[in-house]
């Protein structure tokens, strides 16, 4: 009986060892599959993030180019506006000069009329005096 018990115990130990080895193999296979799956997920996540980063980088470069282009356009418009302001200022000054000239002409016309009126009065007065002297 002792031999049967020992044989049974040895058989149980052998089955246990065999079962433990089989479980170890399954654990190793599952561990290897889990690591491979984790690597795939990690690669997909990195790829997804890098794709977004790359898209952002391309968009940033495009925005920078458009900003530079707009800056050049703004400078051109600013220069053109400055030129227009100078033309308008020159035109305004010319209009003021024309107004000043017209005013000077009106003053001269008024002065000439006054002088002509005064000369006429003097002339008429002088004729009357001569006419009065000749009549007397």
From TrEMBL:
<dbReference type="InterPro" id="IPR009395">
    <property type="entry name" value="BLOC1S1"/>
</dbReference>
<protein>
    <recommendedName>
        <fullName>Biogenesis of lysosome-related organelles complex 1 subunit 1</fullName>
    </recommendedName>
</protein>
<dbReference type="Pfam" id="PF06320">
    <property type="entry name" value="GCN5L1"/>
</dbReference>
<comment type="similarity">
    <text>Belongs to the BLOC1S1 family.</text>
</comment>
